[in-house]
Amino acid sequence: MSLKLKELNVGTSLPELKRRVTQEHINLYADASGDHNPIHIDPEFAKNTPLGGTVAHGMLILAYISEFMTENFRQDWLTSGNLSARFKGAAYPEDTVTVSGKIASIETQGDYAIINCEVICQNQKNEPVIICSTKVRVKTDEDSS
Length: 145
What we know:
The protein is of the alpha+beta class. It has a domain at 5-21 and 57-139: Roll (Thiol Ester Dehydrase, Chain A). The chain is 29% helix and 35% strand. Strands 1-3-4-5-2 form a 5-stranded antiparallel beta sheet, with helices on one face. The longest helix has 23 residues, at 58-80.
């Protein structure tokens, strides 16, 4: 889904994105990123840590936030989006994370609107995993595509 600029106002909620975290996804991310820290991929090691088990890479969960923004702002996010993230908690295998957000502000700058969003990724217990401030530039005379 792609949002239309004329439909956006401060406070507008963005459609949510839900993803189930699995150990397989974590292992695949470890291979792709080269980050084979045992806290992510070794259940025997991880169960003896303060986290109590393996956890997803923070950047894997952050990728879900980028996917959420891409679904909402399409090419505009891919070409002009940026974010500032704070990691608040861990995502474990079998967690379901939900990314949600709302428009925090819209600033007009010439032919563009700068849309600032507040975004949060939470686990199924409504505990925050990552919170973000995002910014995307959208042409004012076109719909976001």
